[in-house]
Records
---
Amino acid sequence: MAASRPVTLITGASAGIGAELARVFAANGHTLVLAARREDRLQALADEIAATGRSRPLVLRVDLQRPEAAADIGAALAAQDLEPQYVVNNAGFGLSGPAAEIDRTEQLDMIDLNVRALTDLSLAFVDSLTRHHGGILNVASVAAFLPGPRMAVYYASKAYVLSFSEALHHELKSRGVRVTTLCPGPVKTEFQARAGAAEGQAASVLSQPAIKVAQDGYVGLMRGRRVVVPGWGNKLVTALIPFVPRSLLFRVVDARQGRRRSPGT
Ligand SMILES: NC(=O)c1ccc[n+]([C@@H]2O[C@H](COP(=O)([O-])OP(=O)(O)OC[C@H]3O[C@@H](n4cnc5c(N)ncnc54)[C@H](OP(=O)(O)O)[C@@H]3O)[C@@H](O)[C@H]2O)c1
């Protein structure tokens, strides 16, 4: 029986950092599977990549908040004789506002996507990642390094991603599987509108373009780096966080998140 063909699965490829990750992986010769809910966006990106002479990515319309999502993706790949060499868990969203006041169901949806789906997809394909000497790129955030008042569940979800992925980096090393956690600072994408964050919140000196973040993540994964923080400003911030008194950190994050759009705007 012929061996299944290796592919790179990228979640959340219909926008922002995920779309740029797809462009970077494609430019480096990887055959892609693009997953998200907005199929039209994925098809347009697949067309764009095919037009550059690369193989056309497979598009999977999937809602990763559903518990069966990883199993469905596995079945869709197996049906095409494909199996992951790389898994890029990029899909995620945030919500701004005091945790006790904003919608609880939406906050639990965030855990389903940012934590549950990422964990499932990180573990589901370890055998094929091992066979193809591949790896996992999990997208966390600078938010993973500290608690975040007014975005408490989001920051906690990213702390989970960082902790889990660093441990997995250690566990899977002996199998030859790379696991890298990408921790961007602010990036101007659809993320801010989805989170209900203030206009211009990504427009800080720490802000990086999505393409730069994607390139840094790709290089870091290929080099087997444990954690990648794009940009010198963000590297400095994450290095200093352990030395800043927690009470001061909370005031700074609270004030920053406080510049939030009013509900419904
Ligand atoms: N932008 C920032 O400032 C920033 C900073 C640090 C970390 N990050 C992280 O970077 C990652 C990408 O964010 P981004 O800034 O590129 O945001 P974005 O532009 O809003 O893109 C989010 C992506 O996730 C997908 N997604 C959302 N819910 C989904 C679901 N239920 N099922 C499947 N796919 C889903 C979206 O696709 P559909 O809507 O089509 O499903 C979209 O492709 C996230 O994990 C985010 O936490 C972002």
---
Amino acid sequence: MDCQFSPEAATQTIDWEQQRAWVEIDRSALKHNVRQIKSLLAPTTTVMAVVKADAYGHGAIDIARTVVAEGVEWLAVATVTEGIELRSAGIVAPILILGAVNSTVQVQAIVKWGLQPTICNIEQAISISKAVAKLPPTSPLTVHLKLDTGMSRLGTNWQQAITFFGEVKSLPYLQIGSLYSHLATADELDLTVMELQLDRFQRAIAAISTAGYELPLLHLANSAAILVGDRLHYQLVRPGLILYGLCPATHLQSSIDLQPVLSVKARITQVKDISAGTGVSYGYRFIADRDIRLAIVGIGYADGIPRRLSGRMQVAIRGRLVPQIGSITMDQIMLDVSLIPDLQVGEIVTILGRDGNVQITADDWANELGTISWEILCGFKHRLPRVSRG
Ligand SMILES: Cc1ncc(COP(=O)(O)O)c(C=O)c1O
């Protein structure tokens, strides 16, 4: 059989896939969330939108363009490749790479694409400075110094802040764009550790300032810290989760009015009746205890529905909650739609999101699975086309 690739056919693939299942991005909700965040900040505090991991599964390019148009000044990604993806799409806002940069090839790409790396320790600063020295003359590379104030992840211990700052400052080809740290427990009810981290950050800043150095931009706050209070805001904040309309903790929900940005939709692909006693899906983990009207939906764990939700999730159809039954399979799930007997093939199922008065959130799934909404959002795969509205 003659089978030739045509770009036209490839474009059509998107439409076919949309017939099956897709992710919807609500740009109006995203803009609303940006405005809500800004309303909590002093006019002198700017926003760095954290768009790493493909903007928490939402699609980094579209999210970055939308937030920049809404007045967000900075973007943050985890890797050089993520930064290049945004630059290739024509995004010109300053981009901080939050992850570690350890190779000359990465530094070359950083300079070429106008990205700004995090420096975690002095050895890294020296090797980045040497790598920049070998490149054709450009202006000094702007770098961002990371202090470890208690997260025990990237960064130099806060007690070595003056030495770290002074040594990086003395290196050629680098200029310090900011000094920052990351909080481990700002979303918890007990803020003891967060206060300790804040205190350490303040002491490190005071020490650098007392040593006679001019302070660069300072930043500390993730989503939870933005909501905890303005003493954590400094000149810049780094929201991730709240941009996407989810709250990092139940007790912080009243501090901000958020709208979820992402929904997941799919279509009914078959409707049929099964009689009492019939097993459903792999392993027969569900056996019908009565006659059931069954609907098959074209979305599965390969699209990002965790298989551990098998028999533990509900979806929404025509504004009503409907139970999913049996094991979730790679590309399909089964529903008990006995309550909607006239359901038709092609009707839309809301897997995550709002349908009338019914809403299913990433928090619902995370609570059911004992995980966090961040992980749920990042789990939706590229097989689901992203469709933006608003
Ligand atoms: C350094 C840093 N800042 C900010 C964020 C944003 O965090 P959140 O999604 O909790 O706002 C992250 C995300 O993990 C991060 O690693």
---
Amino acid sequence: MLESLSNLYQLMDDAWSRIAALYQFQCNGCQDNCCKSLFFHHTHIEKVYLRHGFDQLESDRKNDILNKAEDYCRKTFLADGEIKNLKIMCPLNEKSRCILYPYRPMICRLHGLPHELRKPGSNPVIETGCRAGRFDSQSYFKFDRTLFYQKMAHLEIYYRQTSKKKGKINETIAQMLISQ
Ligand code: SF4
């Protein structure tokens, strides 16, 4: 199942690179750094894959990352239930690079480019890309995420059935690293 997820990730990466090339866009890091965004991830299978990558790191490095993840959660999720978006760097980002790049979740892979999503019975919803790309001044190149979301949903359903997991998760990378 993880191999199927890896293949799906490859399709996403290929599509992203193809569309980015049409815009002549290269992500070289920016002030808005998307690794500081408060992204929530929703699939157990992606969490398993991320943690599979994490488990391959040396223990000192893992401890360091876990400390950062705990700090991230302490500052972001307050005891009274409030969630603070403080733009804290993801604990997996080191020197502007993702330590677990091959294992990063779908949203990390698809972020940045203008894209669309099609829901049955509705017109496609088109979202703007990140500010760094200055996409507003360019024509839109079709980047449809729908099929990726559908394939991910199928994989997740199958994973939940075989692993007896129930319900979706709603976790940041930091939470995925420190929770089971
Ligand atoms: S997992 Fe990697 S790509 Fe995703 S936010 Fe963290 S550092 Fe950035």
---
Amino acid sequence: MAADTDIFSPERYAATRLPIEEASPLPPEVYFSQDWYDREIDTIFRTGWLVATREEELPNPGDYVQLNIIGEPLVIIRGDDGEIRALSNSCRHRGSELLTGSGNCRNITCPYHAWTYGLDGALRAAPSMNDALDFNKADHGLPSVRVETWAGFVFINFDADAVPLLTSLGSLVERLAPYRMEEMKVTKKWENRFNANWKIWVENSREGYHVRTVHRESLDTFYPGAVRSAFRPMGEPMVWACSSSDNENGLYVPRNATLPFVVGLSEEDRETTHFMIHYPHLLLNVPPDRITFHQYFPDGPEWTRIVSWCCFPQSTIDLPNFETDADKRYYPSMDLFLAEDKGICEVVQRGLRGRLPSLARYSPSEERTVHEFSNYVLDHVIGPDSAG
Ligand code: FES
Ligand SMILES: [Fe+2]
């Protein structure tokens, strides 16, 4: 693509670097270019903390989930020592994928020639290898990447030098402590594949500007009052961003819902839904009664796999009306909003094609968090010194 020859030139992004009152969105080619995408993977996804799963998905030794992320086959597995590890899911013999899906195993046995690894990734058995000179099983364990946990979330990081997870989370740790997310349990997961660049999904998730159009038909059906509520940008750019909505008439708490709020929340939190992002990979929505979050898996410049999760407190799940209320009043709105957001993200990806698109300006009142995100991307792909 000829246009890619200077795609990493800082001057090209000068209009996005301006204060939001003057700034323009990122140019369309960063949503298509393979070169740009490859550099995003290296500078954003291979350096940041990525959500792998929830701890309750792996309660026992030997529990595992397969995870294919940014082209890297991994398995997240709990060892006999209780530790959760992220191991390469590629056999050290000739590379076969080792485990698929999720489940429990006593050891990891390759389906091809039965090399067998412990839950910690150590190679334990390699049949018919006695004649191989200087072959030492201790040299051929499965590579691993860093794992750290917070509030029930299991994160991984490919960068051995990255700051600890809790440092990267900053004030989110204290801000969200009252929700006791570590006591919540996954009750439903959705998986979608979008024909759109991952940034289009994040940008869409960062603003409420589209809510009154894209979700026009659905919103008031589930969340009366939501169309009148305002998103207030808050937070700390480049660490996390948070938009909040006043819970007027129960925003993001469904109509006629009878499931309780988390006990012990402040008056402000009982009246607020927080829409947060921890860059680069956790989009977290926190109303007073549950959490929903989204993992996004870039799959080339024009495709993104999104896994969306809903978690409730165990005490809520134990209520006799839980399943009925969740099925009738909570999950259908997630189904619908995801379908509506998927649709509009794909429409945007299509609209950005060609050579004519030229993007004008951001709305300062509605898109401050989108502007922050665009600059976060530039800081990583181009470098922070290009600012200004
Ligand atoms: S590829 Fe795994 S044992 Fe041969
Ligand atoms: Fe939306």
